[in-house]
């Protein structure tokens, strides 16, 4: 039977590339994000079968209603991928920016993941995937709120994984941790290395999902950076 996937945050970047990848792999796909014209554009490029809804994860009630509409249009759901996220904190410490990061990357993410847990619990099975970051492993001076929001995402996913295991629910939870991916989010940054394209990231993410991985670094060598970040004593780490 045709598998059905929803990508939240699929209007640009990694999420948009994931929509394309899932479609190419034969999935029936639903996609949500705030910029509806970009979703219409994607539908006209891919297929009229693409289910689209305007979704702002920071507005829980309307976001969950839109999710219900997507599921209804797809006729069910097997995988949900939450790619929605904001950054933009780089270098600054503006409260408005940090609050926006918390609203989207923490509250918004939790609203969707919580919905997915209940949906898949009732249905009996399902796969939850969210895009965290390599920065989840340690706080970062360039982006204290963003790195903390990604630590939240990874911990939430880990908690869910432990919970569904204990509850013996056949549910899979995958934590995706990219390094640098060439998207709108990092446009103009000069300090990047090992940058990968959204298309390659989407292929690697799809592979990790198929392999039912708990956690995947994108690309794989970012695991080494994460390992070093974790290992470095605080007195050295704070000098970086
Ligand atoms: N690029 C990197 O180097 C990198 C590295 C590590 C992790 N990540 C993570 O990867 C994910 C995707 O980011 P990206 O790099 O692909 O950047 P992007 O091109 O800016 O994509 C972000 C996506 O999130 C959506 N989004 C933002 N706010 C939203 C909201 N309130 N409600 C619903 N959707 C919202 C955007 O759609 P609308 O604006 O249309 O709503 C867009 O589709 C993010 O979680 C990001 O933190 C990126």
Structure, explained:
It is globular, with a radius of gyration of 17 Å. Strand 4, helix 4 (95-123) and strand 5 form a beta-alpha-beta unit. The model has no long low-confidence stretch (mean pLDDT 97). The relative contact order is 0.13. The protein has helices at 13-24, 36-46, 60-74, 95-123, 144-166, 198-210, 222-231, 234-237; strands spanning 4-8, 28-33, 51-54, 79-82, 126-131, 171-178, 215-218. It has a seven-stranded parallel beta sheet with strand order 3-2-1-4-5-6-7, sandwiched between helices. The protein has eight helices and seven strands; from the N terminus they run βαβαβαβαβαβαβαα. It has a single domain, classed as NAD(P)-binding Rossmann-like Domain (Rossmann fold, 3-Layer(aba) Sandwich). By secondary structure, it is of the alpha/beta class.
Brief synopsis:
Helix content is 49%, strand content 15%.
Catalogue the ligands. NADP nicotinamide-adenine-dinucleotide phosphate
Report the order of strands and helices.
EHEHEHEHEHEHEHH
Predict the CATH topology: Rossmann fold
- CATH homologous superfamily grouping: NAD(P)-binding Rossmann-like Domain
Strand order of the largest sheet: 3-2-1-4-5-6-7
Q: Rg, please?
A: 17 Å
- The count of domains is 1
Write the CATH architecture name. Answer: 3-Layer(aba) Sandwich
Unreliable residue stretches: none
Distance between the termini: 51 Å
Main structural class = alpha/beta
What is the overall pLDDT average? 97
Task: Please describe the biggest sheet, giving its number of strands, its sense, and whether it closes into a barrel.
Answer: 7 strands, parallel
Strands, count: 7
Number of helices: 8
